[in-house]
TrEMBL record:
<dbReference type="GO" id="GO:0008270">
    <property type="term" value="F:zinc ion binding"/>
</dbReference>
<protein>
    <recommendedName>
        <fullName>carbonic anhydrase</fullName>
        <ecNumber>4.2.1.1</ecNumber>
    </recommendedName>
</protein>
<keyword id="KW-0732">Signal</keyword>
<keyword id="KW-0456">Lyase</keyword>
<feature type="region of interest" description="Disordered">
    <location>
        <begin position="177"/>
        <end position="198"/>
    </location>
</feature>
<feature type="signal peptide">
    <location>
        <begin position="1"/>
        <end position="19"/>
    </location>
</feature>
<keyword id="KW-0479">Metal-binding</keyword>
<feature type="domain" description="Alpha-carbonic anhydrase">
    <location>
        <begin position="40"/>
        <end position="314"/>
    </location>
</feature>
<dbReference type="InterPro" id="IPR001148">
    <property type="entry name" value="CA_dom"/>
</dbReference>
<keyword id="KW-0862">Zinc</keyword>
<dbReference type="Pfam" id="PF00194">
    <property type="entry name" value="Carb_anhydrase"/>
</dbReference>
<dbReference type="InterPro" id="IPR036398">
    <property type="entry name" value="CA_dom_sf"/>
</dbReference>
<dbReference type="InterPro" id="IPR041891">
    <property type="entry name" value="Alpha_CA_prokaryot-like"/>
</dbReference>
<comment type="similarity">
    <text>Belongs to the alpha-carbonic anhydrase family.</text>
</comment>
<dbReference type="GO" id="GO:0004089">
    <property type="term" value="F:carbonate dehydratase activity"/>
</dbReference>
<feature type="compositionally biased region" description="Low complexity">
    <location>
        <begin position="183"/>
        <end position="198"/>
    </location>
</feature>
<dbReference type="InterPro" id="IPR023561">
    <property type="entry name" value="Carbonic_anhydrase_a-class"/>
</dbReference>
Length: 320
């Protein structure tokens, strides 16, 4: 038992964590252009999962276990401030020749070709965007099908992330839905009037459909493919037309560094059920569990106290 634990710790400390939310930033520089895709060695399940990230590389990953402003969080009223999308300067260059799309083992990521975020008198440059499945942030207690993270870095090496929830698009084509609801209106207008306003239909986002059309070609970690041409204005315009929920948090992957400026959009991107299944079969599962309210103790510190108390109680019971 002791030997096993020691062997595990030695193996863990030798581990180099290469891929993360911070891939392409100063924290995790990318390999040289054209180089091999570097696959991450942390994970989401078992002893390489988020309960044990700090032990995988100490002291580099200590914030994962001790930080008090960790991400993701449940986006409930009171933990964020709201900034209108129209007040944020956001540009993302189109990629007319396609983009490099990599499987890092821990996520699938698009290497971008320029983009800026200007907020609070700071300028950030877009490095990449990648996907989590299911969503990492919770929208007022509710997880979403997926979440996209656009990672920006400033000249002073500060990090800002724009997060956008991705929902599964409504299965019924818009025309069929319209026809059905007009029939309901004719048959029962009173019931229709009493019903709460329907949530806006989720339509597939062309950018995501284009990207995920080739995700099956990078099913193996460490592989990459060039996407078809990518037009970014669709998503940028949608983000600007909605609002951002802003809070100061962390990277959601090792080394869990804090001081990350989060901008979680109230917009909804969409994927077709077929694309969702395709990307799910490649990603599997890559969401860190929701962290404590910003400013409150790290859940792992609270958990350690609970475990110690339970062990003392077990020992006392065994001695009795
Ligand atoms: C968030 O959820 C709570 C509890 O379910 C609910 O009372 C509240 O209205 C929700 N807030 C928003 C903004 O939807
Ligand atoms: Zn991420």
């Amino acid at each position: 038992m002791t030997f096993t634990l020691r062997a595990l710790l030695v193996a863990a400390s030798a581990t180099r964590v290469l891929a993360s939310c911070a891939h392409g930033t100063f924290l995790r520089p990318r390999a040289e252009e054209g180089g091999a895709v570097q696959v991450g060695t942390f994970g989401y399940i078992g002893t390489i999962g988020p309960l044990n990230w700090a032990a995988l590389e100490t002291p580099a990953n200590n914030a994962c276990a001790t930080g008090t402003r960790q991400s993701p969080i449940d986006m409930v009223e009171g933990v964020f401030t709201v900034l209108q999308g129209s007040d944020v300067q956001l540009t993302v260059n189109d990629m007319p020749a396609g983009a490099e799309f990599e499987n890092l083992g821990t996520t699938v990521e698009i290497i971008t070709q320029g983009g800026t975020l200007n907020v609070a008198d700071k300028q950030f440059e877009l490095q990449q965007f990648h996907f989590h499945l299911p969503s990492e942030h919770l929208d007022n207690g509710t997880s979403q099908a997926m979440e996209m993270h656009m990672v920006f870095q400033s000249a002073a090496q500060e990090i800002a992330v724009v997060g956008a929830y991705i929902n599964i698009a409504d299965a019924a084509p818009a025309a069929a839905t319209k026809k059905r609801s007009s029939r309901i209106n004719n048959n029962n207008r009173r019931q229709e009037a009493a019903a709460p306003p329907a949530a806006a239909a989720i339509t597939p986002t062309t950018l995501l459909e284009t990207i995920f059309s080739v995700v099956d070609q990078i099913a193996t970690p460490g592989t990459k493919v060039t996407t078809p041409p990518l037009v970014m204005s669709e998503v940028v315009d949608l983000l600007k037309a909605n609002a951002f929920q802003i809070y100061a948090g962390s990277l959601t992957t090792p080394p869990c560094s804090e001081g990350v400026s989060w901008h979680v959009s109230t917009a909804r991107l969409g994927v077709t059920p077929a694309s969702f299944t395709k990307v799910r079969d490649v990603i599997g599962f890559n969401a860190r569990y929701p962290q404590n309210t910003p400013g409150q103790p790290n859940l792992l510190m609270i958990s350690a106290l609970g475990s110690a108390a339970a062990a003392v109680a077990d020992a006392a019971a065994a001695a009795a």
